[in-house]
Write a structure and sequence with these properties.
The complex is a heterodimer. Chain A contains 29 helices and 25 strands. Chain A is of the alpha/beta class. In chain B, the strands form 2 sheets. In chain B, strands 8, 9, 10, 11, 12, 13, 14, 15 and 16 form a 9-stranded mixed sheet that branches. Chain B has a 7-stranded mixed sheet with strand order 1-2-3-4-5-6-7, with no helix packed on it. The N and C termini of chain B lie far apart (36 Å). The chains are: A alpha/beta, B alpha/beta.
Chain lengths: 764, 224
């Protein structure tokens, strides 16, 4: 590809290409950028070409950026965010107008996210600045919808899809627990498997151990080191919150074959391949077939070697997920990435970005925006609203004195206020993170970052684990937490928030297939044989949830009245179903219902037994046409408010900035919750509110699947089983800590009920 | 809800204000007039209507209680920009509707940069503490004073947790030495209070003020 780009840009030129930037290489991760530059430079030297390759990301020092500004490199490796920053420059036309080729690396990582939309808009801008669309090459891992990936990247212009010849499927196997009796029914740590994992690591020269969260990675690193103290120095930890220098060191060490194992998170999903890695272990379910294959592919790069991934279940039901993942991989059922449609927040950010730079004329900009896949169906009304929202005009009688973009000569929209421009540049991007606190040793050395909310709960002297060390908090000062090493061997583990991966539809389908077989007494393969006693216990205590019945279990506990149901619709649609049923059940009688979901089913928990009673007696709970009721249910749940956090940040309402620059912006700090409240009350027609509801319905609840699931639930006969204790399928739901609340009670009633509960608890 | 604040009876109102029945005085804190406007001028779109809604609440309170005096416990204005424009106009218009009402304020940290409201508003601005009816009225709760303080500044909110849900609402925070009022203004945000032994919070829940029972001893952050 790089050679293709070189050929195209050098063709027909006698000597080296003229001045100016010709090739853009866009990568999703800053960490990849430096490696990419090295990889691109090597052949240039060999060919004796005088073409320079530059690097421009958030980590690039300002001196280097200034040097690039004076003498632009031939090719530039950058990220979507840094590309948008270049667009926000007044001389964007001079910088980007000569770009002939754009290469988008790891496009599958970007296309399903708002970052991909940001990049689509940037490509459309480059096409305008250059006078014609550049040649765009996308590079993607295997995914379920490569044709759509091509369309999204090119905005519908014709393109060519090149697929690699038949790949060899990696070996996928599972570490089985010794005895299922002592294997937990829920949880995510998987400590029971430590011995087996250590044995596997000992048997290979070099392994990667993937965990699904940073907290889990910290704990596994500590556990392995505890089991094999002699491996100190031979194993390492790698996750996104560690300082960049630490990560670079670990990456080099794996590449040089100096490490036996690295415990890592998705931070090592992408990037230059490490030849020495022989094995990949995946702790817990990978939740998706594509992700599993990608991680497997990080191993076996020596000639003649085969990629191999070993799944390490953390609880009993993950045995089924493990075998299902292998089934789906063999059948080639890999997830599709769905591209977002018309996100208003990204559009308003982009309009300000261009307004900070060259400015734009309305009609031209509308055509440019509509040339992208994301906004090809943008209607006039939404466009006018978006432009109005970032300018003085349009519907904004509700916003006196507000002006961000101002229309100047020849009808050009620009940002006139330099303070607004500066703040906007600092908050370009669509990656939303919680406020981060930098961790530093007393001598000033940087360790990485943790979330402000975690540090806020600590007092000086408290201990916690980070980067494989136990640290003691000394003090917090100006967005830094100063720490020293603690003598203790254990401490709290920071919890970084972050979306939990739902089981993909492909994987959920494969799980159902396996359960269907189990219901008829067929248990094929070591995983199914291992989990067989558990499924038989489920059948004994209740029923095995299978496709001919809709199983609902009821349980009364100290917490209240539980109802468990198992529609097997996947985590998202199960959440939609649960919210819908909770709302319908509490419509007539005000109540607050707590909802937990997993990929198999959901739990409704209420103070009164209404949910259970109504599901049996009232078939109306399962009637179709959910869209309207679901909209109402979403309003009563916290879901859309949480979704709004990201939207508020992207749309430039909540100023995030950089940890080290945040203080200056204090006077303009307001939380997304405050914006949600004030829009809700004073500007209910705000499209950002509508977007948060729409995103919840489409992405978090999967409206399309809910209708089908409801129909499926009606078609099955309802079997209600009162249970004396939580069953193997109910237990993971019962201990689920991430819960939704659907409430039709008044605020006063809710507070009064909580206070009564607190008083009752105080008397025990 | 009527409470005893250092020997002085105070009525806590669900409108996020306090009433001194003996002296017929209405207390409010942290109006932050002009905050939404200053956001808008800086290019952050906050819809108009917060100021009007707040004065609407204040009008209703005055109509119901017919106070002899209104005292603002600081942060009447949000910043220097509040001195001109619609926020100060709204304040002057509100003042004209209640021309007989005596209005005083103690200066808060925001007032220090915003400056005193213009004379046309007829609000006497004083430095904290203002001694009134046996209480020290101030903005910051830790202002040195000889008697029980009533203050604002922290915008207290309380997080409540039930068996099946949790919620965050504005609250009054009663300490042995001070009563802290919730912010009266809209678009003001909140700071979560964790009451210590000997303290009590009163949650503002819709139309009610509800006493929250004191917390049980909490394990340290490290424990779970």
């Amino acid at each position: 590809m790089w050679f293709g780009a070189l050929l195209r840009t050098l063709k027909g030129r006698a000597g080296p290409p003229g001045d100016g930037l010709k090739v853009l290489w866009v990568t999703p991760m800053r960490a990849l950028a430096a490696d990419t530059v090295r990889a691109l430079e090597t052949p240039l030297a060999g060919l004796g070409l005088a073409c320079s390759v530059g690097l421009r990301t958030g980590d690039t020092p300002s001196a280097e950026r200034a040097r690039q500004d004076r003498k632009p490199p031939f090719a530039l490796v950058t990220t979507p965010e840094s590309l948008s920053l270049m667009i926000s420059r007044a001389d964007a036309a001079a910088r980007l107008g000569g770009v002939e080729v754009v290469i988008v690396d790891e496009w599958h990582e970007l296309m399903g996210a708002k970052r991909g939309v940001q990049l689509q808009l940037a490509l459309a801008r480059i096409a305008t600045l250059a006078g014609s669309p550049p040649v765009v090459w996308g590079v993607s891992a295997t995914l379920g919808n490569p044709g759509e990936a091509l369309d999204v990247l090119l905005g519908g212009r014709p393109g060519v899809l090149v697929e690699a010849a038949a790949r060899r499927l990696p070996a996928i196997d599972t570490l089985l627990p010794d005895t299922l009796e002592r294997f937990p029914w829920a949880g995510h740590l998987g400590a029971r498997m430590l011995g087996a994992v250590v044995d596997e690591l000992a048997a290979s020269a070099s392994s990667l151990v993937f965990c699904n969260t940073r907290a889990q990675a910290e704990l596994w690193y500590a556990m392995i080191l505890d089991a094999r103290p002699d491996w100190a120095g031979a194993i390492a930890l790698h996750h996104g919150s560690l300082d960049v220098e630490v990560r670079r060191w670990v990456e080099r060490a794996i590449g040089d074959g100096r490490l036996r194992a690295v415990v890592c998170t998705s931070s090592l999903d992408l990037g230059v391949d490490f030849a020495p890695v022989e094995r990949v272990l995946q702790i817990g379910s990978a939740k998706g077939v594509g992700r599993l294959l990608q991680r497997a592919g990080r191993s076996g790069h020596r000639p003649g070697a085969v990629s191999r991934v070993t799944l390490v279940p953390t609880h009993a039901l993950e045995l089924i997920e493990a075998v299902a993942a292998r089934d789906a991989a063999r059948a080639g059922r890999i997830e599709a990435r769905l591209a977002p449609a018309c996100p208003v927040d990204v559009l308003v950010q982009h309009l300000v970005t261009v307004g900070v730079g060259t400015g734009f004329v309305e009609a031209e900009m509308l055509a440019e925006v509509r040339s992208t896949h994301a906004y090809r169906a943008l209607d006039d009304e939404a466009w006018r609203w978006s432009l109005g929202f970032v300018s003085e005009g349009a519907s904004l009688s509700a916003y006196p004195e507000y002006r961000k973009l101002v229309r100047g000569d020849e009808g050009r929209w620009r940002v006139a206020d330099p303070n607004i421009a500066r703040r906007h540049r600092m908050s370009i991007g669509t990656i939303v993170a919680d406020a981060a606190i930098e961790l530093r040793f007393m001598n000033g050395a940087r360790l990485g970052t943790v979330e402000e909310a975690f540090v806020a709960r600590l007092r000086p002297g408290d201990r916690f684990m980070f980067g494989g060390r136990v640290l003691e908090l000394v003090r917090v000062h100006e967005m830094s937490a100063w720490v020293r090493r603690a003598r203790a061997t254990s401490g709290a583990v920071p919890r970084w928030s972050g979306g939990r991966m739902p089981l993909s539809g492909e994987l959920a389908h494969a799980v159902l297939e396996r359960l269907r077989a189990a219901a008829t007494g067929v248990f094929t393969g070591p995983e199914m044989r291992a989990v067989r006693p558990l499924l038989e216990l489920q059948a004994r205590w209740s029923r095995l949830p299978e496709s001919s019945i809709l199983l609902a279990e009821t349980l009364v506990s100290r917490e209240g009245h539980h109802l468990f149901a198992y529609p097997f619709a996947g985590r998202h649609a199960n959440l939609g179903l649960a919210c819908l049923l909770a709302w319908r059940a509490s419509r007539g009688r005000p109540a607050t219902i707590s909802v937990a979901v997993n990929d198999y089913g959901f739990e409704l928990l209420s103070a009164e037994p209404l949910a259970a009673a109504q599901l049996t007696s009232d078939a109306g709970l399962l009637v179709s046409s959910p869209a309207e009721d679901l909209g109402a249910a979403v309003n009563t749940a916290e879901l859309s408010r949480r979704r709004f956090r990201e939207i508020a940040r992207v749309a430039g309402l909540v100023f995030q900035g950089h940890p080290r620059e945040r203080r200056s912006a204090r006077s303009l700090q307001a939380s997304a919750t405050m914006f949600h409240e004030v829009f809700d009350r004073h500007d209910p027609g705000n499209l950002l509110l509508a977007q948060s509801r729409q995103e919840v319905l489409a992405h978090e609840l999967e409206l399309g699947r809910i209708e089908a699931a409801l129909a499926g639930m009606r078609a099955r006969s309802l079997v209600m089983v009162p249970i004396a204790r939580p069953t193997p399928f109910a237990f993971p739901l019962m201990v689920e800590r991430l819960r939704e609340t659907v409430s039709t009670e008044t605020l006063a009633d809710r507070v009064a009920r909580m206070v009564a509960e607190l008083e009752a608890a105080a008397q025990c | 809800m009527l409470i005893d604040a250092g020997g002085v009876p105070i009525e806590l109102l669900a409108e996020r204000a306090a009433w001194l029945p003996a002296s017929e005085t209405l207390l409010v804190a942290d109006l932050h007039l002009g905050k939404a406007q200053s956001f808008r001028r800086s290019g952050v779109p906050v819809p108009a209507g917060t100021t009007a809604a707040m004065f609407g609440r204040l009008d209703r309170l005055i109509g119901e209680l017919a106070p002899r005096e209104l005292i603002v416990l600081g942060d009447l204005l949000h910043g220097p920009l509040s001195q001109q424009g619609p926020a100060i106009d709204a304040l002057a218009q509100w003042r004209a509707r209640h021309i007989r009402l005596a209005v005083r304020m103690v200066r808060g940290n925001h007032d220090a940069s915003a400056g005193d409201p213009p004379a046309v508003c007829g609000i006497e601005a004083l430095s904290a503490p203002l001694l009134h009816a046996g209480l020290a009225l101030c903005h910051e709760p830790d202002e040195p004073a000889a008697c029980f303080r009533v203050a604002g500044h922290v915008h207290p909110v309380v997080r409540l947790r039930g068996r099946i849900d949790r919620i965050r609402v504005a609250c009054f925070w009663l300490r042995p030495d001070a009563l802290i009022l919730p912010a009266f203004g809209e678009f003001t945000g909140g700071w979560p209070v964790m009451p210590q032994a000997g303290e009590q919070v009163f949650a503002v829940a819709g139309s009610d003020v509800i006493a929250v029972p004191p917390p049980r001893p909490r394990p340290r952050a490290n424990g779970r």
